[in-house]
Design brief:
homodimer; 463 residues; alpha/beta; nine-stranded mixed sheet; 16 helices; 23% strand
């Protein structure tokens, strides 16, 4: 009798293995799935199946249950399941300078606070400590991919990879001596070594980051661009952030920053230009024609009074536009939910049109738009079968999120990074139910505070 | 021997009672005390002593320990202790409409969504459920006093009082029939009854709230103002929110909304005017001369593209200026930390000056400035001996708040309502360590969701 029963159960198991659900590594079950795919499909009561590093299914909970069985399951009832956020412009280690100096103009802030502080504190150890803190903050607030421009970028890469985040990391090329390079030539050599070390990494895309036109001459800008072309890696640059930058371009014989860069042969696919505030319609047409991606940083632009980027103009021109927080020294955090909210609110009031940059548009900028700006929209930026599993689960049950008529509205207008419950990158769970699994939070915060003491001392000496 | 010992202990107790620390109801100990007093004193390692409803001591932790012994103590180590936030303009029950309709112009939003939804759902029960949800959100985000304009204001008063919040609550006077009044005369009668019922309440200040000039004719505005003068209670009004309102004033023979109201004899001490976007320097001079308080609502003004209020102009003119969130239907939450951040960032970019509205100024607007705008700055708005004990304790240990160079910067640029740990109003602890003590959170959220179903049905029928 027992033997017969065992045989019977075995037979069922065999049948089930042939025709039943496929076993996969993880199913996120029964949430409000905001796919950000081409149709902006939202599936209430939907699930996402992940196997290894990739998304293998996005559908109703019933359909996914029939097709897949997760070795691990995350219950997302009442929560939003959506693509991880793409922060297209930051300087991760600068979290160690957050709130060090506020309410100052960009050049005053850079020349009298940030550059001197950097001169005295930036080192491989500083950069590693800062990246760990930034990674902690990004994981906690739902950013899964970020683009970075800083020094000792290979150290940033190490910590980014250890934290499990996806990064497009640009080694800075700048005309004056900095912590990791005495000359632009040194910086270019360092960038090349960095590219070689990380060229085929699954999480890290190495990049070359000429700082800006006002911190590099034409030949250096061209050399940086040539290097990234030679290795087919992205070029990251600050572009037309302040009105003063236009003057620099004009001193070099071009009417605008965009035309100046274009005259150098700098613009092309693979270039991600941060800020893009002071651009004309003609400039935007050039950016579109050259296939340049642009990163919009509303909070930094507001805080430093840099200006208001023509977001509607970029969208009308079809430029690949993403959102960024900029470094935490000018924001002062890395919360992409706030960047979305600010992008929507600022454009409305600036253009005197409350329909400008809807919640849906803001959400697109922070996900698939950012992926597109980085040239990564075939891999990330939406929940679609075959894309990498960069997924976040976002709580929707706070008093300030109650009631909920429209999850898209809530994601942009009342949700914060802190509402993110679970963060997954490349199929790996980095945070689960607010517990970060890849970093020791207490140790990271302690180390950051120790560095802050050194920063404080450096700035006190300077002033 | 025993008797001698007892006598000795008794003697010591008597001495202690005469010269030792005075027993008080509560001491908040050893925090970063941001007083917002006239000198903007910040006491690192400071304490606040509260007895009954009032603050009896604000000093270093050592000094307070020598003077006071709390029957209850709240440890604020590493946290900010500051005055509760003053939200000078909202419509509490409208939290039940949050996210119902976004990305629309004010008049479209009001006439096609909000007014129809209100016509079908506003009732005493609706208003009570909404006020409970709003109170929960305000307590959770550190607002201790709020100014409200809505219908069935006596129901709002009941729930505000039950939740333990301080409220300046204005019964709406509006020309067209609304849920609680068929005519302005009905509304005025209702307002008068409300005033009589709450005139001497320790927490509730009843007020009269003529909605705006575009929703009331001159005689109704004057009657509303007369009523509030007769009882010496505040008058709350929407003023110069959109450019269209200036047209209304001009049709009535005045160049601006301010001059129109002034021609009616409407402006004077006790008037709190919300928005004040479309005002000239001459208008601001009139507001200053008349002693009118103004509520700045940056998020609502941005979201509805109403315009950018001249905050620097108000400050230069010496107008009593506070901050408000506006109703959650146009914000979409009641977080005053976000209002501060937005006030600072918006003015910087709008005036092309990053020094405009510093973190300190933004914090003043949200505390003592708001108290001044409401004419309550002798009672609330700062941590000073003799003022009511409206105090909040704010966490400063999140990754996005690390490191901390300046608590004022962090309060404005990286802190959210959710960081508030403890909220005290009139000496009573309403939330302790994130646990709200005066409301049943689960029940409040459940009731709000039930009302949302009715709202959804009302709007679906309408469109």
């Amino acid at each position: 009798m027992l033997a017969t029963f065992a045989a019977l159960t075995g037979a069922i198991a065999v049948v089930s293995a042939q025709t039943g659900p496929r076993q996969v590594s993880l199913v996120i079950a029964n949430g409000i799935v905001v796919t950000m795919n081409g149709n902006s499909r939202v599936i209430t009561g939907g699930s996402v199946a992940i196997d290894g590093t990739d998304i293998v299914g996005v559908d109703t909970a019933d359909a996914i249950r029939q097709q897949f069985r997760g070795r691990d399951t995350i219950d997302a009832a009442g929560q939003v399941v959506m693509p991880g956020l793409v922060n297209t412009h930051t300087h991760a280690p600068m979290v160690l300078y957050r709130g060090l100096a506020d309410d100052l103009a960009l050049m005053d802030w850079l020349n009298n606070y940030i550059f001197p502080a950097e001169a005295k504190t930036v080192s491989p150890e500083f950069v590693r400590a800062g990246t760990k803190l930034a990674a902690l903050e990004m994981i906690e607030s739902g950013t899964t991919t970020y683009a970075d421009m800083y020094y000792f970028e290979e150290e940033i890469a190490k910590e980014t990879k250890a934290a499990g985040l996806r990064g497009v990391l640009g080694e800075t090329i700048i005309q004056f001596p900095v912590a990791d390079a005495k000359t632009p030539a040194d910086a270019l050599a360092r960038a090349e070594a960095f590219i070689k070390a990380y060229k085929d990494d699954p999480l890290i895309t190495p990049a070359v980051a000429p700082h800006a036109i006002y911190t590099n001459d034409g030949p250096t800008l061209q050399a940086a661009r040539e290097l990234s072309k030679r290795y087919n890696v992205p070029t990251l640059i600050h572009m037309a952030e302040t009105q003063a930058e236009t003057k620099t371009a004009q001193e070099r014989g071009s009417p605008s920053v965009v035309t100046y860069l274009d005259s150098l042969g700098f613009l092309g696919p693979g270039v991600l230009a941060a800020h893009g505030v002071w651009v004309s319609e003609a400039d935007m047409a050039i950016l579109k024609a050259r296939g340049v991606g642009v990163s919009h940083n509303p909070e930094s632009n507001m805080k430093l009074a840099s200006g208001i980027a023509p977001v509607r103009g970029y969208l009308a021109a079809g430029v690949a536009l993403g959102l960024g927080t900029d470094g935490a020294a000018s924001n002062n955090d890395l919360d992409m939910f706030e960047a979305m909210r600010m992008a929507a609110l600022l454009q409305k009031v600036a253009s005197n049109d409350p329909t400008a940059v809807s919640a849906k548009t803001a959400l697109q900028l922070a996900t698939i738009g950012g992926a597109r700006a980085l040239g990564m929209d075939r891999q990330i930026g939406s929940l679609e079968r075959g894309k990498h599993a960069d997924v976040i689960v976002v709580g929707m049950s706070a008093a300030r999120q109650t009631p909920m008529y429209d999850p898209i509205s809530h994601l942009v207008y009342v949700t914060r990074g802190d509402d993110v419950r679970t963060t997954i990158v490349n199929g790996k769970v980095l945070m689960r139910n607010r517990k970060v699994l890849t970093l020791d939070e207490a140790a990271v915060l302690k180390e950051a505070k120790a560095w802050a003491d050194k920063v404080r001392a450096a700035v006190t000496t300077n002033h």
